[in-house]
Write a structure and sequence with these properties.
The complex is a heterodimer of chains A (about 400) and B (about 120). Chain A is about 70% helix and about 0% strand. With about 400 residues, chain A is mainly alpha-helical. Chain B is α+β, with helices and mostly antiparallel strands. Helix content of chain B is about 30%, strand content about 30%. In chain B, strands 2-5-1-6 form a four-stranded antiparallel β-sheet, covered by helices on one side. In chain B, strands 3-4 form a two-stranded antiparallel sheet. Classes of the chains: A mainly alpha (about 400), B alpha+beta (about 120). At the A-B interface, helix 1, helix 10 and helix 12 of A face helix 1 of B.
Chain lengths: ~400, ~120
């Protein structure tokens, strides 16, 4: 039964960890007793059949294991008399669904603790909610397991020193938690999609885990348009994973991707979710980004892309998120509708702010190429190369530099 | 008699299976589809995850419109994942085909169905 039952444990884990963390007020204990309950299930379920409500079974078993443990510890401390009443073994069904969804959100929110660096927040979510091993997380971040272990231990200590309150959050507080957790999931996906450095461009584990967590949020909060849109956005992006690199691991630009390699089931689900998000009538940044991704997914070929629609979406995104990077993307769409010359003039004011952003330079280079300014294009590419591109990105940039040089040589 | 083989299970568990177990499940489905294809017409339907669902509930009073809520019909442990429908000679024949897609992550129900009209074409 190995493999089958583990998949069920992974599915139950976020809810079980959330309820156990509330119950024991301690993530460490929750992790240990959940693992203990899973070990018991590996023996019990094949013998007695899988329970109809696996979550309730795991929770009851884990709680009783935890209480057993506390009882032993307390007996040693001769404190049992004081707390005997609190330590009755429980045999209660799974907690109230409303309480449970706040518990899961809280657990994710605990991982997003502001005292932690972003990468450590993501690592904590992968470990505690996703149930990945330290080795798997280390592999996803391309660092040594030992280093990862130390970072997780440190992160746990920081969280314990600065606890999050366990009462039911107010609607405003719940909204803020959802926002923070969604951003962490979004960044987890981006970290997998476009690594900050290194040899590999896509780390699928991070993307898949981010999708799993986004799906969890939608299941818990089906009426929240932005979370539905976030899942939609991630699925649209993820659909392109196989087409993004060629057989040799080289990056393939969106325009040149073999669209038959796009995952149609991801696109179909993304479209269904985007329609749901639109029905919920909330226009936030994830919904607009999902709409942009949908335009790309809908186009049968790169030439068939509706750039006017995409430009309008970016204008709307810039209105609520006026950052230079959003503006740059808006200009990239304008380059399609209004030409390279127009786009180059529009991007000039961003030069200082985005000097350290390598996409600014690669985009500028490709526009300069279009107006046959090979010398300036080459300089822009060389600047991009100085900004620590990933190995596959670097390969593409070097190839383009060679092409500029060829174009510069007198015929 | 037309029978439906309906599939129930916990949404998301399949995605959490290791690759070789996923393959085991998929190969069961391939075997069934090939067997059904040889016999004649059949349909197979896979439902998207419950997170994509919207529910239409009857209005509270006669003068109101049906109530539309986001999310699946009920927050249950098991959800309806998909179904096959085909013409089978006997119940035993239908059960024998259902057995091809039996796995630890699914509960199957075999139930006769009556055709109520309509047609679907897809690529």
């Amino acid at each position: 039964m190995t493999g089958w039952l583990e998949a069920s444990f992974t599915t139950q884990r976020p809810h079980a960890m959330a309820a156990l963390t509330r119950y024991f007020r301690d993530i460490e204990i929750a992790e240990e007793v959940f693992a203990e309950a899973c070990v018991k299930a590996l023996v019990d379920w094949p013998e007695n059949g899988t329970p109809r409500d696996p979550l309730a079974w795991l929770l009851t078993t884990a709680r009783n294991a935890g209480l057993d443990r506390l009882r032993k510890a307390q007996r040693q401390k001769r404190l049992l008399a004081h707390h005997a009443a609190d330590l009755e073994a429980v045999d209660q069904p799974a907690p109230d669904p409303d309480e449970l969804r706040d518990d899961v959100l809280r657990l994710l929110f605990i991982c997003c603790h502001p005292a932690l660096e972003r990468q450590d927040q993501i690592a904590m979510a992968l470990k505690i909610v996703g149930g990945l091993t330290v080795g798997e997380i280390a592999q996803a971040f391309l660092i040594k397991p030992k280093t990862m272990e130390q970072r997780i231990t440190r992160a746990k200590k920081r969280i314990a020193d600065n606890p999050v309150a366990f009462e039911t959050p107010s609607p405003q507080k719940r909204g803020r938690r959802l926002g923070d957790v969604s951003l962490m999931i979004y960044l987890m996906f981006n970290e997998g999609w476009s690594t900050s450095g290194g040899d590999i461009q896509i780390r699928v584990t991070l993307c898949e885990e981010a999708i799993r967590l986004a799906r969890l949020l939608v299941t818990l909060f089906p009426g929240m348009g932005e979370q539905v849109a976030l899942l939609s956005l991630l699925l649209f992006q993820h659909a392109r994973r196989d087409a993004r690199t060629d057989a040799g691991g080289k990056l393939v630009a969106l325009e040149e991707q073999d669209r038959t390699q796009w995952d149609l089931s991801n696109i179909a689900e993304g479209s269904a979710l985007l329609q749901k998000a639109s029905r919920l009538n909330h226009l936030g940044p994830y919904r607009i980004q999902a709409a942009i991704a949908a335009e790309h997914a809908r186009a049968a070929a790169s030439d068939a892309t509706d750039w006017l629609a995409i430009e309008a979406h970016y204008a709307a995104l810039y209105a609520i998120q006026p950052t230079p990077v959003v503006r740059l993307n808006h200009i990239a769409a304008q380059a399609r509708t209004k030409g390279a010359g127009f786009a180059l003039a529009e991007m000039a004011p961003l030069a200082d702010e985005l000097d350290r952003y390598r996409w600014y330079h690669t985009m500028r280079a490709s526009l300069l190429e279009q107006i046959n300014d090979h010398r300036a294009a080459k300089a822009a590419l060389e600047r991009a190369l100085e900004l620590n591109p990933t190995e596959p990105e670097g390969a593409v940039i070097r190839e383009k530099i060679a092409l500029c040089e060829k174009n510069l040589r007198p015929v | 008699m037309m029978y439906a083989i309906t599939i129930y299970g916990e949404a998301g568990v399949f995605e959490n299976l290791p690759a070789e177990k996923q393959e085991e499940v998929m190969s069961g489905h391939r075997t069934l589809q090939e067997a059904l294809d040889k016999r004649g017409d059949f349909i197979s339907v896979k439902l998207m995850p419950p997170s994509t669902a919207v529910t239409v509930e009857p209005p509270a009073t006669a003068d109101q419109k049906p109530l539309i809520t986001d999310g699946p019909f009920a927050e249950t442990k098991e959800s309806f994942l998909g179904f096959y429908a085909a013409d089978f000679q006997t119940l035993d024949d239908a059960l024998e085909h259902a057995r091809m897609i039996s796995s630890p992550i699914a509960r199957l129900e075999v139930r006769p169905i009556a055709w109520a009209g309509g047609a679907i074409s897809s690529e």
